[in-house]
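Morning F.,

Quick status update on the modeling queue. The single chain you submitted on Monday has been processed. Sequence for confirmation:
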Amino acid sequence: MNQSRKRNPILKKPFLYFFIYSFLTILFVEVSYGQQTDIKRELKRLNAKIDRERVRTDSLETQINILLPDLRNTLRATVDAKKQTDSVAILLINRINTLQNKIRMLEDKSIYTDSTNFEILAQLVMIENKIVTLTNSFTEMYSLRSDKQQPNIKAKISPVEYKKKYIEALSYYQNGDYSQAITGFSSLVIEDPSNELADNSQYWLAECYYSTKNYKRAILEFEKVFTFPGTDKDDDSQLKLALSYQSLGNLVKAREEYQRMVDYFPSSEYFSRAKESLKQLSLE
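Structure tokens below.
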């Protein structure tokens, strides 16, 4: 009885171990089977995703293969167009540079032409002035020679001698002998400043200096003409003052003198000429 009691626990242990082992084995198998199922499911899902990506990749590759020639042609056309554009740009730049050079040449030529035209205009004005002046001198000389009346005025020089010397000095002026003309007119102004031809003598004295381009002295002499009462050489002298200042390059004073001509001598034969000269000087 005692021996059988001692064997019972021993006999039961193998069974317990077997049971535990069987249980753990079943549990491991179930767990392993569950994990394998999850793994298989995940692998299946990944394989499906890979298949989809492969399909998309194949589709993209197909599209690329289709578009690649067009892309190559487009790239080649773009490169060719860029080359052509660069070529055209270079041609345009060269053309622009050529036009700019031509513009500069035209501007320089225009400046030179304007300067030349201005000089020609100045010379024409001087020639015109010379013609008018000589015409006036011949007209005046003819009037004096035709005038038989001799005023009876007491002076250092007789009216007859005064007129004779006056015509002689005027002849020197007309012949371009300004030195002799200056000597003659100067002596006449000094010898009898009250003679009716004294203001004319003063005017032609100033004209002699103007003709020799001694414009500063001419200005002084032309201004003296206005000191003679009732002179008919005032508008002539006013015009010559403006021309003298213009010849000296003093355009400010020239404009002032032309303006006086316009303001104070509206009925003068030189009015239009002074107005036009004033307009030209105002544009410069």
